[in-house]
């Protein structure tokens, strides 16, 4: 995956504090000083010092003796982030309707620098393990939704993305990908199979607001249960959904012109 940004110089301590904060997740809601020291390769005193700063800012609190978790203060930050995500809020009802109509997973992703990030998902079958979930970061060159975003970047930025990939794509892989992106850019439509998750088929279309691609909407499903006639129907559904979400975002911006 491409490096989303070059390391900012002179802020190593701040970077470490943020890395510790980002260590918390839905599946890993608690941590210890010893665990922080091990994960980040730092001493126990250093881990304690970084954690003390997070506690001072009311971002982390001690739940049990020696065990730390995020504090309710983080919910305020999450709420502020949610307010700014018109794409997520507008798309959710559309995704829910698609899920009930198709009985498959529907999701929306947006581009953040050199990555595709899932901002909303509606999934009926929790047994289907997919990599895209809210907040999850994926490369731009794998999967229908991500490639839809990459295809709509200027050629210069596409080349910059390819150059930053580690490991580099083989020449034949790069040629095939560039050919796919050319078609996707012309048709505003993409399909993929087993590119992100094995055995999973996906179809996607860009969400375009005022001539700018703000995200991509996608339907994903196990390939074995999606015959061609169903794929044809899903292509229409996802294209209509992209238009509906775009119109919803535009209406939101018109109703709240000052933010």
What is shown here, in short?
This protein has nine helices and nine strands. The protein is of the alpha+beta class.
Topology:
Layout lengths: L11 H10 L8 E2 L1 H8 L3 H13 L3 E5 L2 E4 L2 H12 L1 H17 L2 E8 L2 E8 L14 E3 L4 H8 L3 H10 L6 H17 L2 E4 L6 E10 L2 E11 L5 H28 L4
Antiparallel strand pairs: 1-3, 2-3, 4-5, 4-9, 5-6, 7-8, 8-9
Helix pairs in contact: 1-3, 2-3, 5-9, 6-8
Tell me what you see in this structure:
There is one protein chain. The protein has helices spanning 12-21, 33-40, 44-56, 73-84, 86-102, 144-151, 155-164, 171-187, 228-255; strands spanning 30-31, 60-64, 67-70, 105-112, 115-122, 137-139, 190-193, 200-209, 212-222. By secondary structure, the protein is α+β, with helices and mostly antiparallel strands. It has two domains: 12-76, Orthogonal Bundle (Arc Repressor Mutant, subunit A), CATH 1.10.10.10; 85-255, Beta-Lactamase, CATH 3.30.450. The strands form two sheets. Strands 6-5-4-9-8-7 form a six-stranded antiparallel beta sheet, sandwiched between helices. A three-stranded antiparallel beta sheet has the order 1-3-2. β7 (190-193) and β8 form a beta hairpin. The longest helix is centred in the last third of the chain and has 28 residues, at 228-255. The mean pLDDT is 86. GO terms for molecular function: DNA binding; DNA-binding transcription factor activity.
């Amino acid at each position: 995956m491409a490096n989303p940004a070059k390391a900012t110089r002179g802020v190593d301590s701040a970077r470490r504090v943020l890395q510790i904060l980002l260590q918390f997740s839905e599946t890993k809601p608690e941590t210890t000083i010893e665990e922080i020291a091990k994960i980040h390769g730092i001493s126990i005193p250093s881990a304690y010092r970084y954690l003390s700063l997070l506690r001072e800012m009311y971002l982390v609190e001690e739940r049990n003796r020696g065990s730390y978790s995020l504090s309710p203060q983080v919910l305020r930050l999450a709420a502020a982030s949610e307010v700014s995500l018109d794409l997520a809020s507008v798309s959710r009802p559309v995704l829910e309707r698609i899920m009930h109509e198709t009985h498959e997973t529907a999701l929306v992703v947006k581009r953040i620098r050199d990555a595709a990030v899932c901002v909303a998902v509606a999934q009926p079958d929790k047994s289907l393990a997919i990599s895209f979930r809210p907040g999850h970061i994926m490369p731009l060159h794998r999967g229908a939704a991500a490639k839809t975003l990459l295809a709509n970047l200027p050629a210069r930025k596409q080349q910059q993305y390819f150059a930053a990939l580690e490991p580099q794509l083989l020449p034949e892989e790069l040629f095939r990908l560039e050919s796919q992106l050319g078609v996707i850019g012309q048709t505003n439509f993409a399909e993929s199979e087993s590119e992100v998750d094995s055995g999973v088929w996906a179809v996607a279309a860009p969400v375009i607001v005022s001539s700018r691609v703000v995200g991509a909407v996608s339907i994903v499903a196990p390939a074995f249960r999606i015959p061609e006639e169903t794929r044809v129907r899903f292509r229409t559904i996802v294209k209509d959904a992209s238009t509906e979400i775009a119109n919803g975002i535009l209406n939101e911006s018109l109703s709240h012109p000052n933010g």
